[in-house]
Design a protein that fits this description.
Layout: E1 2-3, E2 7-8, H1 11-17, E3 20-21, E4 24-25, E5 47-49, E6 52-54, H2 72-82, E7 89-91, E8 97-99, E9 114-115, H3 122-125, E10 137-139, E11 153-157, E12 163-164, E13 172-177, H4 185-200, E14 204-207, H5 214-217, E15 221-222, H6 248-257, E16 262-267, H7 269-284, E17 290-295, H8 311-330, E18 335-341, H9 348-357, E19 362-364, H10 378-389, E20 391-397, H11 402-409, H12 427-443, E21 448-452, H13 455-459, H14 465-483, E22 489-494, E23 497-502, H15 503-508, H16 518-527, H17 535-560, E24 583-587, E25 593-597, H18 601-607, H19 614-617
Parallel strand pairs: 8-11, 13-14, 13-16, 16-17, 17-22, 18-20, 18-21, 19-20
Antiparallel strand pairs: 1-4, 2-3, 5-6, 7-8, 9-12, 10-11, 11-23, 14-15, 22-23, 24-25
Helix pairs in contact: 4-14, 6-7, 8-9, 11-17
Bound molecules: adenosine-5'-diphosphate, 1,6-di-O-phosphono-beta-D-fructofuranose (FBP) and magnesium ion (MG).
């Protein structure tokens, strides 16, 4: 058995699967490997030559992919891809690559095929070229350098195939929804049910109740077009959702026990990771089960696809809150309207809502750290804007300023939700108290600040018309892919064409606002806000001052206090109207700040940051 040189893998797989890969050849394995490398310096790597393996530098005949299913070459490439731990990356003529999705025949090679009933469907039979060719692919990058034409990554085009791998009467499909809500989930559920029913004649469709844990702890819900007829007009999820509770073995046991062979999983990055684990387990057990992921996230942070469903609806709904904030702010002196929007790690909603509105003076997102004090800081900017126009609107994404708040409080936020996502400190409340206190104390200028937190309102509404159409296409892409035997894929649009993307590819990276991109530049030019470039120096200074301040406060409270721990000095969210004097706020699992009696110093540190003290905190001569 020859030991061959490792092929260099693209960055994505390097990260997922280790630095390289070795390939065995020998009598038992006639087929070999089609792996491309993409590192910008040239193209080399493993190549397929029928019956023999060739590597970098050696004689190579390029694999002519995409490969038509069922051909001799396809069989070779398929078994080659099996030897690559299920990763299917093929090189086409000219060096372009196809990141292909798994297929049932990868582990069940002799499955029979059937003619697609859509051929005889009166609604669809009139469509010219209705069926998508197995050789159709979609380019990830449509803008390329003239020297690179014909290269780059591609994905399989989504859509109905002429041959399918399930007899309609044999299909037992289930749908599950996981993670946070998002406008449009019900539309996707409805369209999967109606699509399977009317296009393919499937009659056994079940809902899994309450997210992943519903697989093994609840009864299924029967789904028919009649039952789901109206659900797209409502927000939320008809099937209920949850975080946590992903137990791969128990879920696949339940899939087997119920004879389910198509699993449609609607959810965000965490859900898709779970879907991939389910797919892997089904494959390991040799089951004829397809797992299809439908990406859902209001944060729009799922990579590769153009945009997630519900995002447009969310941006539109956010306008209502921004408008209200603007009206409130401009109707009083020194008025500030502060709106918090969702966006745990990605500030897309905040960025798009700001750009759409044009009433926003400052947009804070997780990707851009900010600081409060000193030249170029937030307070200086707020003061300047209030002087210029008498009022201002601030939009903040919930994930913004997390490090700053933690630094200011001297605490580390270790709280997590049931899925393992970090719980966020409430940046909206923190900004309110910090700004108010600061302006009062330092400038003797009371602020008229109105805080609006529409986060749950934004994600709980039904999807708008364009999101409804998008959800319909997504659902149809998923069912066509499943009927065609593809699995372990996420359906979604790439450059406006729906594709099947390997789930592994989708979850390998997450998407964030690119602040070096023209979109963020547009925002900066529309708000004229500072770019907070001096963040690191500023935070160091602020840290130093806060530490001093805490020490002073501790000494003071030791002297004063007779009852152990005092919340003085931890009073970022200290009781306002109606709160008892010795109360502070604690963050609950649903991310709301609630008052608690001040006897837990740790909780207070995590949830009640000390506002910075600008005049003492910064060396104004700092670079
Ligand atoms: N790495 C992972 N592997 C398997 N399952 C996961 C993983 N991360 C999250 N999950 C499961 O996916 C579901 C939803 O995840 P969550 O992060 O809450 O929402 P979202 O999918 O919207 O990002 C939960 O049931 C959680 O247990
Ligand atoms: O309070 P919940 O339900 O845990 O949701 C909060 C989180 O859910 C989201 O809306 C979406 O998150 P997921 O996509 O991970 O479900 C985030 O913006 C937000 O931080
Ligand atoms: Mg998520």
């Amino acid at each position: 058995m020859a030991c061959l040189r490792p092929a260099v893998l693209p960055e994505f797989y390097t990260r997922v699967g280790g630095g390289g890969v070795g390939v065995e050849s020998g009598a038992a394995r006639q087929a070999c490997v089609g792996v491309a490398r993409v590192d910008g310096r040239g193209r080399s790597g493993a190549r397929l030559e029928s019956g023999r393996v060739f590597f970098q530098g050696e004689a190579v005949r390029r694999v002519e992919t995409p490969v038509a299913r069922g051909t001799k070459r396809w069989k070779e490439v398929r078994s080659a891809s099996e030897s690559m731990e299920g990763k299917k990356i093929f090189t086409g003529a000219g060096g372009a690559t196809l990141e292909d999705v798994p297929h049932l025949t990868d582990w069940l090679p002799d499955l029979p095929t059937y003619s697609n009933p859509l051929k005889h469907n009166p609604a669809y039979s009139g469509v010219r070229q209705y069926f998508v060719e197995d050789t159709d692919v979609v380019a990830r990058d449509v803008v390329v350098n003239i020297d690179d034409m014909g290269h780059g990554v591609h994905f399989r085009r989504a859509g109905p195939r002429e041959k399918i791998y399930f007899k309609p009467e044999e299909v037992r499909a289930c749908i599950v929804t996981c993670g946070g809500l998002c406008p449009g989930i019900n539309t996707v559920i409805r369209e999967i049910v109606c699509g399977l029913w009317t296009q393919y004649g499937v009659r056994d469709i079940y809902g899994i109740d309450g997210g992943y844990r519903g697989f093994y702890s609840r009864n299924t819900i029967d789904l028919t077009p009649k039952i789901v007829n109206d659900i797209h007009k409502r927000g939320g999820t008809f099937l209920q959702t949850s975080r946590g509770g992903h137990d791969t073995a128990k879920i696949v046991d339940s899939i087997q026990d119920r004879d389910i062979n198509q699993v449609y999983i609607i959810g965000g990055d965490g859900t898709q990771k779970g879907a991939n684990a389910i797919y892997e387990e089904c494959k390991k057990r040799g089951l004829k089960v397809v797992v299809a992921g439908i990406p859902k996230t209001i944060d729009n942070d799922i990579d590769v696809i153009d945009k997630s469903f519900g995002f447009d609806t969310a941006v539109e709904e956010a306008q209502r809150a921004i408008n209200a904030a603007h009206v409130e702010a401009e109707s009083v002196q020194n008025g500030i309207g502060l709106v918090k929007l969702m966006g745990r790690y990605s500030g897309y909603i905040a960025m798009h809502a700001t750009l759409a509105s044009r009433d926003v003076d400052l947009c804070l997102i997780p990707e851009v750290p900010f600081y409060m004090d000193g030249p170029g800081g937030l307070i200086e900017f707020v003061r300047k804007r209030l002087r210029e126009s008498g009022h201002m609107v601030i939009v903040v994404a919930e994930g913004a300023g997390q490090e700053l708040m933690a630094e200011c409080s001297g605490g580390i936020n270790k709280l997590k939700d049931a899925s393992g996502n970090k719980l966020l400190l409430d940046v909206g409340l923190w900004l309110c108290s910090t700004l108010k206190e600061h302006f009062q104390k330092e400038f003797k200028e009371p602020l008229n600040l109105k805080y609006i937190d529409p986060t749950y309102m934004v994600r709980a509404i039904p999807s708008n018309a364009s999101d409804n159409v998008y959800c319909t296409l997504l659902a149809h892409s998923a069912i066509h892919g499943a009927m065609a035997g593809y699995c372990g894929f996420t359906a979604g649009p790439v450059n406006n064409r729906h594709c099947y993307i390997p789930i592994k590819r989708v979850v390998a990276t997450s998407r964030n606002v690119n602040v070096a991109d023209r979109m963020w530049a547009r925002l900066m030019s529309s708000t004229n806000q500072p770019n907070f470039a001096r963040y690191e120096r500023a935070i160091q200074l602020q840290q130093k001052v806060n530490a001093q301040k805490r020490q002073e406060e501790e000494e003071k409270s030791k002297a004063k206090s007779t009852n152990g721990v005092s919340t003085e000095g931890l009073n970022g969210h200290k009781g306002g109207a109606g709160n008892k004097p010795n109360e502070t706020f604690i963050q609950t699992s649903d991310r709301q700040a609630i008052p608690v009696s001040g006897d837990s110093k740790e909780a207070a540190l995590l949830t009640s940051p000390v506002p910075g003290d600008p005049t003492q905190s910064l060396d104004h001569t700092a670079p």
